[in-house]
Amino acid sequence: MVLFVTRHERRRIRDDVPREAWVRLVACSAAALVLQLDGTLVTVALPSVAHGLRVSGGSSAALLSAYFGAYALLLLPGGMLVDRFGVRRIAVLGLGLLLAGAAGGALAGSLGSLIVARVVQGAGAGLVSPAALAGAVSGFPPERRGVPLGIWGASAGVANLIGPLLGGALTYLFGWRADWWAFVPLGLLAACAIIIHVPTLRRDQHSGWHRTPVNRVLLAASCVAAVTFAVMIGPFYLIEQYLQDSGRYSALAASSVLALVALLVALAAPIAGRLADARGERFTALLGFLLAGLGLALLGIPGMPLGSAISFVTLAPLGLGLGMLFVPASRAGLGSAPQSSHGRVSAMLSLGRLLGAMIGASAAGSAISAGATASTTHQALLIACAACLLLGLPAASRLGKPVQSLS
């Protein structure tokens, strides 16, 4: 058994997989990148939105609920449409809705019209998400999906890294409407890439699309995705608030914590892809949860100064562990069903991530309402550690048997 593929094996992978599959991966990753930016870039502008439209800060938070609510409701229908009509058609339709919602949001003159625009954007995201993931791996054989999924995970990490920075820069330089206008050229470029590089579905490719893809491995993979995002969203939202409220950090300095974790996730995801191809999804996911749990346990030690250089060092196993978890869940879920069901599989994985993010954010919000003190933050970190060990590890152990080594 080998941990990583050698240079010779990487060359063989490139030779075994046609160039069109890699180009398709890039095109679908670009579409997913737009979604990731939509979830982070706009959030930074919410205080400016409230000021510009003369509404309360709490009212502007309804924009997030409108977006993610529509996103969640359209995921499963979107996955069914992908399996029925193909990646290309549904991805372009979803990007079209995203563009329409972005333009409508940029021109909105009231909070109500802006909420409607965000609902349209969320509906578009619910269509693009399953289409993009299903299309990204459609040209790769099952035993070679780790590397492309690693690239996919790295793009998500990069988007989470640059989203807040880009949103802050656009808001500062041009105002909050620039954050919505930015999606117009980005969405157009992604749609053009999909149209050019993703083939139209042939009629024989969706035979059996009506068969349900739900199975034990897919349920376990969705659970891994949910725990991953609950652990990633909740504790770091709470840490960011604690650093601003009690640590007297500026918003930019506090957000650097999230940027560091996003960078570590982007670095770890490609490694996880090679590791999953070599040792299987179960091993990779177990390693990811152990690393994440270790980082959370160290951060949760009572008395650990969360704003010190020592606490930043403990972010390394946490960020690397989270980066290890993107690939095995997607690889196991997609590998558990035929390609004719990959749209619905992708939708279920995305729904698991979204539910996990909502649970993490809600838990962090409840903790913050009671006061983002050092004690509360340490307790939340230890609870997140327990979630990795008590929920994440059992789910990861059911992802399936390790695949045969490439050596």
Which tags fit this structure?
single chain; 407 residues; mainly alpha; Growth Hormone, Chain: A; 2 domains; 79% helix; 0% strand; globular; disordered N terminus; disordered C terminus
User: What integer value in Å does the Rg equal?
Assistant: 21 Å
Annotated CATH topology of the largest domain: Growth Hormone, Chain: A
Reading off the top of the CATH hierarchy, the class of the largest domain is best stated as Mainly Alpha
Summing up helix and strand content along with how strands pair, one would put the structural category as mainly alpha
* Morphology call: globular
Q: How does CATH name the architecture of the largest domain?
A: Up-down Bundle
Distance between the termini: 7 Å
- Mean pLDDT, as a whole number? 82
Number-wise, the strands total 0
Low-confidence stretches: 1-6, 402-407
Q: Provide the helix percentage.
A: over 70%
Strand content: under 5%
Query: Largest sheet, described in full?
Result: none
Number of DSSP helical runs: 17
Sequence of secondary-structure elements? HHHHHHHHHHHHHHHHH
- The CATH superfamily of the largest domain is known as MFS general substrate transporter like domains
